[in-house]
Amino acid sequence: MKKINEKKKTLVSSFRINIIFLIVFLLFSLLILKLGIVQIVYGEDYKREVDRKENVTVKISLPRGKILDRNGKLIVGNKPSNAITYTRPQNMKAEEMLKIAEKLASIIKKDSNEDLKAITERDKKDFWILKHPNEAEAKITAADRAKLKNDKDFDKKIYQLTLERISSKELKSFTKQELEVLAIYREMVGGYPLTPQIIKKDASAKEFAFVSENLESLPGVDTTTDWDRYNQYKDKEGNEILGSVIGKVSSSKEGLPRDSVDYYLAKGYSRNDRVGKSYIEYQYEDVLQSQKEKVKNITDKNGNVLESEVVQEGKRGDDLILSIDIDLQRKVEKIIKEKLGHERMGEPYLDRAFVTAMNPYTGEILSMAGKQYVNNKKTGKTEVNDYALGNITTSYEMGSVVKGATVLTGYQTGTIVPGAVLNDRPIKFLGTKVKKSWNTTGFGPINDLYALKRSSNVYMFLTAMKLGGQQTYIPNGPLSINKVAAIEAFRKNFSQFGLGVKTGIDLPGEQIGFGGDQIPPESGKVLDYAIGQYDTYTPLQIVQYISTIANGGYRIQPHIAKEVREPNNESTEMGPVIQEIKPKVLNKIDMKDEWIKRVQLGFKQVVNDPLGTGYGIKNKEYKIAGKTGTAQALYNGPLPHSPGLMLWNITFGGYAPYDHPEIAVSVILPWLRTDQSHVNLEIANDVFKAYFELKEKREKEEWNQPTVNNK
Fold it and tell me: Crossing angle for the helix pair 457-467 and 483-496, nearest 10 degrees?
């Protein structure tokens, strides 16, 4: 019985296993059948579907960041405009694009002088071939084809032959309507595949509406909002305030500058991207450039776009906050223009003036202004142009304004000591002309403070002579100095103030002046150096030098950018700060504090002592200190002149208040025929007044703001 039961159990188990195997077999058979159906029946369809689609990601630029002044006032922004664009598929035929261009030409106008002038001879030839394919083919003979049949560049050379054989008569056969089509067509083919190309900017509302209504019949064409850079502030003549320093941005047609295409492409730019070409726009390109929107285009094998998807939202560029006070800038430009215009009467060579204002403790440029009179060759009229850039790109002999550096060099080298008395009288060395101060009879025995106050030349000559190793002046005797050692000692010390070296401002193209690598041919030139009449300096170098004395001996790097902020499109308020440009000390001058304070006292006396050369500055309540300068210099300006023409540069460098400086200023007017002008003092006076009046006005406005009761 037991054996029978065991036999039955074995039979049941075998039956169950067989059932399981059968089920597994049937499932596998079903799976194989399904795979077979997919592969055999639908395989080609699926393969075609896979082959049909390609994913192509393109990047689309958005507007640049804004440029604002230190108080949040917009200086440079983006002006929106209606635009018609065309996005070319990857494999679109020229004939198909021509049809679209012809239809678009019936809706929009593209026949302005600028549009038609942009059409090149090569554009016309390519267009003629496209419009006259049979006539174009007939220009190539059988002999031509036989000659080139084995050439690897057969098609290219045949096309080149065709281009060469198109006659001028054929090129002139285009109607105005055909040229308008060509103007559109050349824009369409000029873009990159799958990247929107602007066909027309500033489209009228009617054009914009008509194109929008006909998009279905205009494949690749779209309507969008484009932007142009604009400066919020202009003077009466239309000149942009601070225009030369702001710089320019390339157009979408220009795209990337030719000399830096590879650099920008390596950074992810497209060839038709707009970039800063000069100065602030160029210097802060990384800040102002937008973060591109990334769009994934799904195309078929022929390059036609099937669908598009935004895979990364873009944003406009970050906002750049300048250290410039635009209200002060406008006032300073007005002051320069009025004073320069008046002073030019009877002064044919005086064509420019410069003012730079800087915070002596932070290096923040509060104003950088310049004006230049130029002759418009087309109209023959004289125009006043913005020349703020001249503060860093032009240099001049600055004259006595540098005497503070001369005195401090004397202290530092032990040539003179504070309070040293030297005899100011006309001096003459063997074989040279008499050298003297502006007071031709001399000031007699004077100390360093009196020398600064009255701007003694002879005091500086004697200091330079001692620096060169000659301790005693012998009337009509030889000038026996080591000119190399003397000039090198001067330049080493002057460079500590920023004279003769780059200031480090955050703008490209800064110049350092002339003379820094030269040894004077005559020893007497070393004496001229001591009164600012040998090496040349920029207006910005003068304000950095003055600031170094004003703040107690720290050479601060000037900067025109103050902050970088995130863009805020939802509000007129500025976005959060991303980066703050902090003050940077380039060096501490190697001189004792009491020496610097003594020169500060001398500068104070220049403006506030009735005998001071800067006493003509009227607004004593602002506690101004500074140094005047006049330098006789060789004219090297734009007007025709006789060789060796010598003119006068008049200058001023100062700061206020002298007990706690807030602002340092340089004023430069080159090439006057007289040294008796006081226009440098008039400009300085008005610039300080403008600064402190603005400050007082804002403090009153802030004081009168209603307070919020939080109770």
Answer: 110
In whole angstroms, what is the distance from residue 199 CA to residue 186 CA? 9
Residue-wise pLDDT tens digits, 502-553: 999 999 999 999 987 889 999 999 999 999 999 999 999 999 999 999 999 9
Res 561 pLDDT > 60: yes
Of 142, 56, 121, nearest to 91 (Cα)? Answer: 56
Tally of CB atoms within 10 A around 67: 26
pLDDT digits (tens, 9 = 90+) for 267-297: 888 777 889 999 999 999 999 998 766 555 5
CA distance 594 to 598: 6
* Alpha-carbon span 581 to 646, nearest angstrom: 43
Q: Is 396 left (phi over 0), alpha (psi -120 to 50) or beta?
A: beta
Q: Is pTM beyond 0.85 here?
A: no
Question: What is the 3-state secondary structure of 129-189?
Answer: HHHCHHHHHHCCCHHHHHHHCCCCCHHHHHHHHHHHCCCHHHHCCCCHHHHHHHHHHHHHH
pLDDT tens profile 406-436: 999 999 999 999 999 999 999 999 988 999 9
Helices 94-105 and 121-131 sit at what angle, rounded to 10 degrees?
Answer: 100
Please state, in angstroms and as integers, the Cα–Cα distance from residue 428 to each residue in 431, 435, 522, 633, following that order: 8, 6, 15, 21
Q: What tens digit of pLDDT does each residue of 207-256 get? A: 888 888 888 888 888 888 888 899 999 888 788 999 999 999 988 778 88
Answer whether residue 362 shows pLDDT above 80.
yes
Domains of the chain listed by start with CATH number: 54-85+229-322 (3.90.1310.10), 91-192 (1.10.10.1230), 332-700 (3.40.710.10)
Assess contact for 256 and 291: CB atoms under 8 A.
no
Q: Tokens 């004279």 appear where?
A: 499
**Considering only CA atoms, which of 442, 457, 526, 537 is closest in space to residue 485?**
526
pLDDT at 61 over 80: no
How far is 606 from 604, CA to CA, in rounded Å? Answer: 5
Nearest by Cα to 600 from 551, 530, 662: 551
Q: Lowest mean pLDDT: which of 9-13, 83-87, 457-461, 676-680?
A: 9-13
Please determine, for residue 665, whether its predicted confidence score (pLDDT) is greater than 60: yes
Half-sphere exposure of residue 535, counting CA atoms within 13 Å on the CB side?
27
Tokens of 42: 């639908």
Residue 191 has what pLDDT?
Answer: 72
Helix (H) or strand (E) holding 261: helix 261-266
Dihedral of CA atoms 204, 207, 212, 218 in degrees, nearest 10, equals -140
Q: CB count, 10 Å around CB of 227?
A: 18
Tokens of 435: 């050298």
Cβ atoms of residues 463 and 455 within 8 Å: no
First to last CA, the chain: 102
> Could you list the active site residues?
400
CA pair distance 451, 196, nearest whole angstrom: 69
Name the one residue in this structure whose structure tokens are 């003036």: 353
Q: What element of type H or E holds 561? A: strand 561-565
Cα(677)–Cα(371) distance, integer angstroms: 18
> At 571, which amino acid appears?
S
Structural contact between residues 337 and 236, judged by C-beta atoms closer than 8 angstroms: no
Residue with tokens 């003068």: 542
| CA distances from residue 190 to 33, 94, 215, 591 in whole angstroms, order as listed | 53, 12, 21, 63
